[in-house]
Amino acid sequence: KKINVALVGATGMVGRTFIKVLEERNFPIDNIYMFSSAKSAGTTVKFAGKDVVVEELNENSFDRDIQIALFSAGGGISQKFAPIAASKGVIVVDNSSQWRMDPNVPLVVPEVNPEAVKNHKGIIANPNCSTIQAMVPLKPLHDKYNLKRVVYSTYQAVSGSGVKGVQDLEDGIQGKPNTFYPHPIAFNCLPHIDVFEENGYTKEEMKMVNETMKILEDYNIKVTATTVRVPVRGAHSESINLEFNKPFELEDVFTALKNTEGVVIVDNPANNEYPLAVDAEGHDEVYVGRIRRDFSVDNGVNMWVVADNIRKGAATNAVQIAELLLKYDLV
Ligand code: 2RA
């Protein structure tokens, strides 16, 4: 069964990766439509060897036979156009943060809560990249040992900010001033991703806190986060500290993770083997290592989790959600 797909934000970093991942996974597409802002409209992009002209997005863009629309064009575009698309019967998979906490919008990581897509009312939200990569290893451990508390410390690539973030890093390395981040990112760490809220956390940190509880469907888990931008190009790294309500054997934690779809364990410190951003970049797996008991609490574990934030953190996760819609006959 082939379906018609629209990409909104087709020329952005995630949009271009939508195209790459759809091609790689042979997603069954009959017709594909590409939409962008006026700035990029009129350009031609290739899909499966064919030229596709990028159209300027407007209220009438979905007045055609489209089954699924993948959005990655910022919260404002999603706020306005996702409901328009949904009103025409299009199922929207939205990468922005706009709809993630809406009770009528499933927030989905296919390896974690695939069934949630069945509750959609037209819009399905892709979680934040730093949340997605954490959920894949945390879900099996939560199921087995019941999470009591999670402490996230993230080391996030500049590609999370799109081309402007990448440019600031490249400029900084050449000694040129930063034009996007509030401070130089080269040879530096910025504990400031997105904007600060009243409670002293950034929006990025609150995304991880709120999305973790929604995806795991457990609002008793205590979650805190510190998210940091680091001079890395293409993968987010995270130190994750977990405390469980139940005791565990460390070897069983390894076994649970080894048996989890989408997780690759890289954990052999004696051979200097642990997950690295440069190894994760360009791949769809979530790499887990430095797995060790946290001896400062009764039932705690520390781990180091790395994944490509543009692929598994955004484009691939969204395409996997679209594949679920086909699998469950929802399109
Ligand atoms: C970032 N997670 O890394 C945010 C949005 N992609 O900037």
From TrEMBL:
Coiled coil: none annotated. InterPro entries: Asp_semialdehyde_DH, Asp_semialdehyde_DH_beta, NAD(P)-bd_dom_sf, Semialdehyde_DH_NAD-bd, Semialdhyde_DH_dimer_dom. The keyword Oxidoreductase applies. NADP(+) binds at residues 11-14, 39-40, 159-160, 309. The active site is at 129 (acyl-thioester intermediate), 236 (proton acceptor). It is an enzyme of class 1 (oxidoreductase). Keywords: Amino-acid biosynthesis, Diaminopimelate biosynthesis, Lysine biosynthesis, Methionine biosynthesis, NADP, Oxidoreductase, Threonine biosynthesis. It comes from the Bacteria. GO terms for molecular function: aspartate-semialdehyde dehydrogenase activity. Substrate binds at residues 156, 229. Pathway: Amino-acid biosynthesis; L-lysine biosynthesis via DAP pathway; (S)-tetrahydrodipicolinate from L-aspartate: step 2/4; Amino-acid biosynthesis; L-methionine biosynthesis via de novo pathway; L-homoserine from L-aspartate: step 2/3; Amino-acid biosynthesis; L-threonine biosynthesis; L-threonine from L-aspartate: step 2/5. Phosphate binds at residue 100. Its EC number is 1.2.1.11. The keyword Transcription does not apply. It holds the Pfam family Semialdhyde_dh. It catalyses: L-aspartate 4-semialdehyde + phosphate + NADP(+) = 4-phospho-L-aspartate + NADPH + H(+). Residues 4-120 form the Semialdehyde dehydrogenase NAD-binding domain. NCBIfam families: asd_B, PRK14874.1. Homodimer. Catalyzes the NADPH-dependent formation of L-aspartate-semialdehyde (L-ASA) by the reductive dephosphorylation of L-aspartyl-4-phosphate. Belongs to the aspartate-semialdehyde dehydrogenase family. PANTHER family: ASPARTATE-SEMIALDEHYDE DEHYDROGENASE, DEHYDROGENASE, PUTATIVE-RELATED. This is Aspartate-semialdehyde dehydrogenase. It comes from Terrisporobacter mayombei.
